[in-house]
Amino acid sequence: MPVSNKVHVQKDEVNAQRVMDRIEQLATFSSMEGMVTRAYLTDEHKAAHHQLGAWMEEAGLQTWQDEVGNQWGRLLSSNPTEGTVIIGSHSDTVVNAGKYDGTLGVIMAIEALSNLKLNNIELPFHVDVVAFADEEGTRFNTTLLGSCGVAGTWNPDWLDIKDASGISIGQAMKAFGLDINAIPEASRAGDKTKAYLEVHIEQGPVLESCGLPVGVVTGIAGAKRFIVDVSGMAGHAGTVPLELRNDALCAAAEMITTIEAYAKAQGIVATVGKCDIKGGAVNVIPGKVQFSIDIRSQNQELLENSCTQLLMRLQSIAQKRQVTAEAEKIYEASAVTCDSKLQSLWSSVTEDVTRKPVHLLPSGAGHDAMMMATIAPMSMLFLRCEKGISHNPLEDVLTEDVAVGLTCLEKMITAL
Ligand SMILES: [Zn+2]
To answer: Which side of the chain, N or C, has fewer Cβ within a 10 Å radius?
Structure first.
């Protein structure tokens, strides 16, 4: 990164270095030697939260673990006349993850509260920091479990969902020491929550390209995912003339390029991340192909219309090529807008700290903030990450940027 892109904040540099050191330390709580992999309700989850709890106590916070396994710390107000402020992110990771996705937001929040406490700053509200135990869904393929518990949207049916070894969430919770009958007590839905704030790495290259350490998030894109099964007729690669084939892969290929072209025209994003030829062989015309579609937009109406239109286009390609295509929706999450007042507050805070115009940007990735938006005004601050890389061991951030983010977060809390 060019040196001119850096914004130095003297005061928080020592604290930022401590954040970086703690991120390195937390990365050692992993199920895989030499890699970062930390899934829900595992020994690594327990050890990492024990460490986070110790840092919270060191910062002078009151600590507890909730009924779904999230770790909390509270900066107590002596006169809490207003609702509580919650600041959080997640502590779990994908397989062979980077060190910063999620953990950065948790450790920065602990550092900010520690600083406020050291400076004897008295607030008219409690400030809670939370490490959500399961955002990625690495073990059970169900995302946002930690924040669903806090938002009061935990579905009891989830207790039966099993991991790859056949252990259910319910069994894993019991083994972890959690009481499944007490899960509703994790909910903060009825409480007076003044705001939910989350600091997270951008997971994209926009801030780096603008030369800015931080940016204010406008909203989180809604997403829909489908699995499409295309069935044609398998046959001999040498004997069936091209015009008499029902090649499922050629049909799928046309569908995939149509998805890309349509998404471009609509200004949305669509990705085919998986594509399998069932029983494929070098001398066999593909008879069955399965592929995935992930479609996202910040505009919920556009997302809904685009999905309907696209599925119709896939059907006409199937008809033309005399194959069948069946699409099954496997996931959906609605688009969420960040609270406008909190966005303005973040904007003035970041402009004050960086002395550059604020950059507003949407989040294409899902976050715990989506769930928290159901119970409190929500907002997010993105921190620049190197080349926009995430979910990858190459994930990296600058200590200078963490210093900027910390100053912004502290100013934001006191400005609320
Ligand atoms: Zn994350």
So the answer is: N
Cα dist from 310 to 59, 247, 407, whole Å: 52, 21, 45
Structure tokens at 94: 């994908």
CATH number of 222-333: 3.30.70.360
For residue 179, how far is its CA from the centre of ligand 1 (angstroms)? 27
Distance from the alpha carbon of residue 289 to the mean position of ligand 1, in angstroms: 32
The token pair at 208 is 């780096």
367 C-alpha vs ligand 1 centroid, how far in Å?
6
Q: What tokens were used for 121?
A: 């700053």
Q: Where in the chain is the domain with CATH 3.40.630.10?
A: 3-221+335-415
Amino acid at 371: M
Distance 324 CA to ligand 1 centre (A): 37
Annotated binding-site members: 90, 101, 136, 200, 225, 283, 296, 391
Could you tell me which residues are annotated as the binding site for Zn(2+)?
90, 101, 136, 200, 391
Burial 72-91 (b: 16+ CB within 10 A, else e): bbbbebeeeeebbbbbbbbb
| CATH number, domain 3-221+335-415 | 3.40.630.10
- pLDDT at residue 271 tops 80: yes
What are the pLDDT digits (tens) for 25-40? 999 999 998 899 999 9
Tens digit of pLDDT for each residue in 310-361?
Answer: 999 999 999 999 999 999 999 898 999 999 999 999 999 999 999 999 999 9
